[in-house]
Amino acid sequence: MTDFAATRALFHLPPGVTYLDGNSLGPMPIAAQDRARRVVVEEWGDLLIRGWNAAGWMAAPARVGDRIARLIGAPQGSVVMGDTLSIKVYQALASALAMRPDRRVVLSDSGNFPTDLYMAQGLLASLGSDYRLKVVAPEDVADAIDESVAVTLLTEVDYRTGRRHDMPALTEKAHGAGALAIWDLAHSAGAVEVDVSTGRADFAVGCTYKYLNGGPGAPAFIYVAPEHHDAALPALSGWMGHAAPFAFDLDYRPGKGIERMRVGTPAVIALAVLDAALDAWEGVEMTDVRARSIALSEAFIAGVEARCPDVTLASPRDPRARGSQVGFRHPQAYAVMQALIVEDVIGDFRAPDILRFGFAPLYNDMADVERAVTVLADILSTGRWDRPEFHARQAVT
Ligand SMILES: Cc1ncc(COP(=O)(O)O)c(C=O)c1O
Ligand SMILES: Nc1c(O)cccc1C(=O)C[C@H](N)C(=O)O
Predict the structure, then answer these.
(1) Ligand 2: which of 24, 89, 354 to mutate, judged by most atoms within 8 Å of the beta carbon?
(2) Is 209 a catalytic residue?
(3) Which of 105, 162, 326, 360 is 20 to 30 A from 253, alpha carbon to alpha carbon?
(4) Is the confidence at residue 273, as pLDDT, over 90?
(5) Which CATH superfamily is domain 4-30+285-391 in?
């Protein structure tokens, strides 16, 4: 059994703050501070350029990738770190499309996070006017998979509602139609049990600043199914993915296996901080994480529905159809969320009307649920969210 009191103690949680926004930015693992100091002062400071070999900087993208692999059901040697998730979406999509040269349709859904759609739009525009991004409602994805589809590009857990796609079933359908399946695990990795191997994903990508707590702008990951390692070309063919970067050849030759999905110089400091953050997952069983996530989310839904008649559930009621976040609708959700944040209950707002709360089992507990319900009920019943300052939109919402 995972000891969640022990994992909670690994995080810096500011006193008095109830943090339910780890689905956007995870809190700071205490170990990150010392690791950041060491990588800056002892490694960069003292080793200087020798750090690439002596401190293992060059190998870090694959080494950290192997730690992520365990959390998403991927074999060792099939995940590598680097760049941002937007870039990894582009890279996976470009690679997958090149593997289906006779097809022109990319299928996604309207619940996808916009950057995934934007990256697809940009890539397809560069490939030619016969390529098409087909966006359907999430519930219509299965029916829209046909033999015109080259690639399905789906985010498993919807960023607003927490609605969770059935990855194995949709992947099987895609394969049956001859398409490849790319899964964005931004809201899944560290939140739900993910198994890219039994789910037979062809590519998977994700960020590490949410449930994996790697810090703002932490490097993204990309998984390529081992059977595609030779066929998948990286599209973004940077020198770090070359078979021999330090041969400085004039022509690109893809590196071995997942290494070819590297692009440029790794973000060594950010990778070191992420590496420290991943220590929190040692000894943690994802089945325990999922059970606790459901218990916390169910208690929150029950509490809010009992005490807050002004909001309606935006998330699926069946916990099996949800990730680890819960959304409630309110016509003035932005102002309500600002009022909550001022009272140190931190969730977030997603346009047009969603109050979003993420439950991260590593550090959230029932006391967080109870406090969030109590403060939300009080803010709504007193109407104290309706102040001019709570309606003024900030740049980052
Ligand atoms: C599903 C999904 N994809 C992509 C992103 C963002 O990608 P990036 O890390 O490049 O900003 C997010 C959140 O920011 C997301 O929720
Ligand atoms: N990546 C973010 C950022 O750089 C700034 C603010 C928010 C984010 C997010 O991660 C948003 C997030 N993907 C979401 O689900 O809304």
Answers:
(1) 24
(2) yes
(3) 105
(4) yes
(5) Aspartate Aminotransferase, domain 1 (3.90.1150.10)
